[in-house]
Amino acid sequence: MADQPAAADVVKGELPLLTLSERDVAELLDDRALLDALEGGFRDLSRGVVQVPDRPDVSVPGGLVLAMPAWRPGSPIGVKLVSLFAGNLARGLPSHLALIALLDPETGAPLCVMDGTYVTGARTAGATMVSVRLLAREDARVATIVGAGVQAREHLRLLPLVRDVERVFVASEYPHDAERLAGRDPRAEATGDLEAAVRASDVVCLCTSSSQPVLDPDWVRPGTHVTSIGYAPPGGELPRALAERARLFVETVSAFEAPPVGCAELAGVDPGRGAELGQVLLGEAPARTSEDEVTVYKAMGNAIEDLVAAELVYRTALERGQGAITML
Q: 16-119+304-327 — its CATH code?
């Protein structure tokens, strides 16, 4: 175009970039708003209006880094980089670290870079709570959380938002960690008898890094909702027999693909057996069909979850004038 400057004459110059720390993100991300935003994200996934490419990974001797981009109309472009380094705990760092970049969908210009570690914990547990809100019995009062790490902490924190839990058992292969976590909530108690806890529970949340099943399917009583967020190929925490006999729900049918896109526990399972949460929210698939039905939600983590959470944080930061501006 005659009135367009020549590419060789255009330089970027300085662009304002909003940066948000972990503390900023924790202050800005409202839990109830997050659950509603996640439901909207799942609807858009099932409508097919979200772009979520397969997540590439780079593996190094100590761990790996995943790139998780996503975009939907009306939102910024989001890209999360998340690292998994098990040895970090000995260094006083979380095993999962992340950052999220938001880009202007009209120009590609960077808008914001924020801590993604808090977002990852909150959105993963938040997606689980969406499944509990949709699928657990309304009278669910007793829950068991298996694991005592970051995700177990976030599940314990968010579970009361979706059900009036009266008792929460916390089980871990590290009893001291289970006791410390249970001390965060007066309704929680550590237990060394996982079988008894599961048999007494209406909701069971698996939050481990185990590469083998952490419970016996026969412990799960009729009417229970079971959730699983662990990822440890080539095995996994969720018993295959439980996934095959229960009503199965996923974020997207990509959960049935091979890792790292899908999860090991569902390898070879007919994708037609799994309903997407978004399909339930859109009325295209039934939720719980009886009080005795056992339902299972198997999560893989989807970049739309990061995008909706990061967008909430970003827009709230703009409204409040929070965060630091760097000229890039």
A: 3.30.1780.10
Q: Give the tens place of pLDDT for each residue, 29-51.
A: 999 999 999 999 999 999 999 99
Q: What CATH architecture is 137-301?
A: 3-Layer(aba) Sandwich (3.40)
pLDDT class of 288 with cuts at 50, 70, 90? very high
Structure tokens that stand for 170 in this block: 């916390």
What pTM, to 2 d.p., does this model score? 0.94
Amino acid found at 294: V
Judged on CB neighbours under 10 Å (0-12, 13-18, 19+), 161 is middle
How far apart, in whole angstroms, are the C-alpha atoms of residue 236 and residue 206? 10
3-state secondary structure of 74: coil
- Cα–Cα distance for residue pair 194/216, rounded to 1 Å: 10
Strand partners, 79: 69, 101
Residue-wise over 122-146: b if at least 16 C-beta within 10 A, else e? bbbbbbbbbbbebbbbeebebbbbb
Domain ranges of the chain: 16-119+304-327, 137-301
The whole-angstrom separation of Cα 314 and Cα 1 is 35
The pLDDT, as a whole number, for residue 126 is 98
Please tell me the distance from the alpha carbon of residue 145 to that of residue 170, in angstroms, as a whole number: 5
